[in-house]
């Protein structure tokens, strides 16, 4: 049934049904919920902990296409990119509000699928989908807001990198970027894209547990790799006023990248959408982190001197600087 | 300069400059701010108070047109519609996050104007613009997320109307709806629209102080009039499982409405965008409220019996039910 037929309130009822599991998990957020969907605002019991909030939007035919991203994928990813920001601060995610705009002729089943995808990821991390908003629009835009907390107050900041820190990254890089490259080649039909690559692109796993473990282990500096490794490392260097070097032969390139005819190193360096955590810390801490985290952690470089004109230098296996163009996703 | 030239980070710097006044007012929110724009998430000191959160979006050519809504108006209104939701709960607004999508060829001055409009309203209410997100999009969508608190825990709920309560509304109704009607007549050029009407449409005043005063006075039920009086009163009746009657001769029709050739009563009954507070309470409380609030408060009807099939009946000056079509804004 299209949305004009179901109507706003019919749709809100449908959505309310789909998101119920997020309220019925034994999570802190569920326990603290006072008002969910259906009044002028959502409400929950406050706490003295440091509060975190972030928002990110996905726009049809800018960030995704329904040619390769199903509604359920979109629901998952819309939440995941926000949870990744909370992870990059070392926080716990608690509540999500969703602003979804779409054409009136969209089928209500599509909206239900969107919320199913989001609910799956939300319940996994104890996040309650507590409110939102639906509006008409010529094409689909999903803006999600996530609220979280830092129970310990120890935050992972972009500005805390210090000379001598090693630079490390969780998981592997390049798979999502490979999929994006194959699926959005201008002027030609989407290339064959292995499902594992497409999955990496549309179903990123936010590193929430890992972010908290990093903060607990004493790491103080992190960012999530959303724009691309070089670009996101530059953000750290600019905020921390430091230079950095990374070595391409140490990059944890996703093995799946090597199965397609693209340059895996370039994907890992400059490709976006990985949603891994890039962090810096003293060497003794990274050793501890490597033994504690369930995912791979790879040291890829080092923070060098402080600098008023911060830069990132990429070194080849012989320690020679190489030229890196394309430094990641450009928003405009 | 267009956005592609300024770039994402140039733009973030510009925005950060514009919103500084929201951080440098002696507000509770400013004092509690820990991290503003520039890291993975915003952060602020938490509190034990009941937390409130809401989100609302404005979409170009669905909710507004640049033919009659300047960028500065859009910034104001994008925040105002969210503050109005916090007001309708009797809360204090604290923090706003802004997801703005727009074409890459938009001038950076336009974005600065948008944030100026928002900053003006934010400082007035002690709200800090603490974070956000900018994305490319074929046309403009603004999604704002506002966090607030209820210092007393006394919330104005849609579900708290009780038989015998009077129904009252702050301010006056119809001016914004008159402007919208004149400016968006299908198939003809926008009609001449007095500036006072256009202003009512693009610069709504959220009733935050009034919402708190209502809660303090013992009012327990309210909603903000965004979809239209009849439509929003129906929401109260559905949530409270009650019937209601209102009298058209008691409606506080905006005097400006009477200067244009539209039916003022119909505008006041069914026109949206007023952002006044519609509330119900025992008669003795409304008397107190009338003497305390700085704005007009008008009793327009009464909550009748409880009902499994709630309805709103509109009565003429002779107490005869009249037929009311068009019950407000349809989102789909």
Question: What is this structure's SSE topology?
Answer:
The structure is a homodimer of 332-residue chains.
Chain A: H1 3-23, H2 28-32, E1 33-35, E2 42-59, H3 71-87, E3 92-102, H4 108-124, E4 128-136, E5 141-150, E6 166-170, H5 175-183, H6 195-202, H7 208-217, E7 221-224, H8 229-240, E8 242-247, H9 264-270, E9 277-281, H10 283-292, E10 297-306, E11 312-315, E12 321-322
Parallel strand pairs in A: 3-4, 8-11
Antiparallel strand pairs in A: 1-2, 2-5, 3-5, 6-9, 6-10, 7-9, 8-10, 11-12
Task: Provide an overview of this structure.
The structure is a homodimer. With about 325 residues, chain A is α+β, with helices and mostly antiparallel strands. The first copy, chain A, has 2 domains: about 5-150, 60s Ribosomal Protein L30, Chain: A (2-Layer Sandwich), CATH 3.30.1330.10; about 165-320, PurM-like C-terminal domain (Phosphoribosyl-aminoimidazole Synthetase, Chain A, domain 2), CATH 3.90.650.10. Helices cover about 35% and strands about 25% of the residues of chain A. Chain A contains 10 helices and 12 strands. In chain A, helix 3 runs parallel beside helix 4 (about 110-125). At the A-B interface, helix 1, strand 2, strand 3, strand 4 and strand 5 of A face helix 1, strand 2, strand 3, strand 4 and strand 5 of B.
């Amino acid at each position: 049934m299209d949305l004009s037929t179901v109507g706003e309130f019919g749709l809100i009822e449908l959505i309310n049904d789909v998101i119920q599991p997020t309220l019925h998990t034994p999570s802190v957020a569920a326990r603290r919920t006072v008002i969910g969907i259906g009044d002028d605002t959502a409400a929950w019991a406050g706490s003295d902990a440091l509060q975190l909030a972030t928002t990110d939007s996905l726009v049809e035919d800018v960030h995704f296409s329904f040619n390769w991203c199903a509604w359920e994928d979109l629901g998952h990813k819309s939440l995941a990119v926000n949870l990744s920001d909370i992870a990059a601060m070392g926080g716990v995610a608690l509540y999500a509000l969703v602003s979804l705009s779409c054409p009136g002729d969209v089928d209500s089943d599509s909206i239900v699928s969107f919320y199913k995808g989001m609910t799956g990821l939300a319940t996994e991390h104890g996040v309650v989908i507590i409110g939102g908003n639906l509006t008409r629009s010529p094409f689909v835009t999903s803006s999600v807001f996530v609220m979280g907390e830092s129970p310990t107050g120890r935050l992972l900041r972009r500005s805390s990198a210090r000379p001598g820190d090693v630079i490390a990254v969780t998981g592997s890089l390049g798979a999502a970027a490979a999929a994006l490259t194959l699926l959005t080649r201008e002027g030609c039909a989407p290339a064959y894209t292995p499902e594992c690559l497409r999955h990496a692109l549309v179903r990123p796993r936010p590193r929430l547990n890992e972010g908290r473990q990093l903060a607990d282990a004493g790491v103080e500096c992190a960012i999530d790799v959303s724009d691309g490794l070089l670009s996101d490392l530059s953000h750290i260097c600019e905020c921390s006023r430091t230079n950095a070097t990374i070595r391409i032969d140490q990059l944890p390139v996703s093995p799946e990248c090597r199965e397609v005819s693209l340059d895996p190193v370039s994907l890992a360096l400059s490709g976006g959408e990985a949603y891994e955590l890039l962090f810096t810390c003293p060497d003794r801490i990274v050793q501890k982190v490597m033994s504690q985290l369930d995912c791979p952690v790879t040291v890829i470089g080092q923070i060098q001197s402080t600098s008023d004109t911060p830069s990132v230098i990429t070194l080849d296996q012989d320690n020679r600087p190489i030229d890196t163009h394309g430094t990641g996703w450009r928003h405009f």
